[in-house]
């Protein structure tokens, strides 16, 4: 459910925090910020395909990845030798719910299809939902957008674990 990424950039901590705040504001995320810590209070919810908050011009996919997650927390820490460490923790419950919805729909459709085509359809849609919604939109694309807003000097390292409930 939770995913944590660590990014390292050459920006001062305050500037990195301000850039991330501008990105979140642009993507429709409500947040609170204090002491180089940013926590979302509300992420955009888009149920229908024609809602504007589902789309974005910040990435090559054209989708707002923040509409697919339940929350985001960002901790910015000044490191040694002018390096700033940015820890991004994602709450991906909403992405899991969307993936479960697609799995359920494909399961119902596959039950009326002849076998083995129905099984192939079910596993194909389930895999696409997992990798497309949970892994890509609810993880990689957010990491990439934040890394891009920090500039080309950012080095992205992926880490995982249940670290979202950071106090």
Please tell me about this protein's structure:
With 167 residues, the protein is α+β, with helices and mostly antiparallel strands. The chain has a domain at 2-92 and 142-159: Kinase associated domain 1, KA1 (TATA-Binding Protein, 2-Layer Sandwich), CATH 3.30.310.80. Helix content is 39%, strand content 24%. It contains three helices and six strands. The chain has helices at residues 13-26, 93-110, 117-149, and strands at residues 2-9, 30-34, 37-42, 71-78, 84-91, 155-159. The chain has a six-stranded antiparallel beta sheet with strand order 2-3-4-5-1-6, with helices on one face. Strand 2 and strand 3 form a beta hairpin. Helix 2 runs antiparallel to helix 3. 26% of the residues are buried. The mean pLDDT is 84.
Helix content: 25-40%
What is the first-to-last residue Cα distance? 18 Å
Strand line-up across the major sheet:
2-3-4-5-1-6
pLDDT under 50 segments (min length 5)? none
Count the strands? 6
Query: What is the CATH fold-level name of the domain at 2-92 and 142-159?
Result: TATA-Binding Protein
Summary keywords:
167 residues; TATA-Binding Protein; 3 helices; alpha+beta; 39% helix; 6-stranded antiparallel beta sheet
